[in-house]
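Entry 14. Ran structure prediction on the chain below.
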Amino acid sequence: MNTTEEVQKKDFRLIETLNVIIMSFAYISLFFSAFIFQNPSYNQIVGIMGWIIWIFGLIRALYPNIVFKKRGGVSKGKSYIHTTKLVDDGIYGLIRHPQYTGGMVIAFSMCLIVQTPLTYILAIIAFATAYLSMVFEEKRLIIKFASQYENYKIEVPRTNLLIGLIRKLRKFGR
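Output, structure tokens:
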């Protein structure tokens, strides 16, 4: 590898690391904003809807950990991030990034729960950084799984569950 490629990889890792730091800050701040900030014109019905959506997002964010452990070829005692097989069924047959999507749903739900301008700004930051994390992760997954992941990208949308369901139903209808 030449020096230019090494510098580019280091720059890419730095950008990715900064993105993760900013994303983590945004999500942690969103969580704490629910306890710190009060909105005098709080709409309780919207807040309740936010909590329902929050539960849905949490399930989507945590469920993949179980799926990877069971179907990702993870060695016993290893973290779910050490998958050796591409998981492309279950929720991963509908969307490629259920964890990030779940996080984005949680960020949206926090807007409904807290209902403050700061929460809206933090949610936008969380959305943008989660999206960038998906892009960064896909670059690593293409290297790890090559054409298998490229084909998977064609078949399964990144985050749009509705499109994923429609594609799955069309596939079954053939």
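The chain is about 75% helix and 0% strand. Will compare against last week's run tomorrow.
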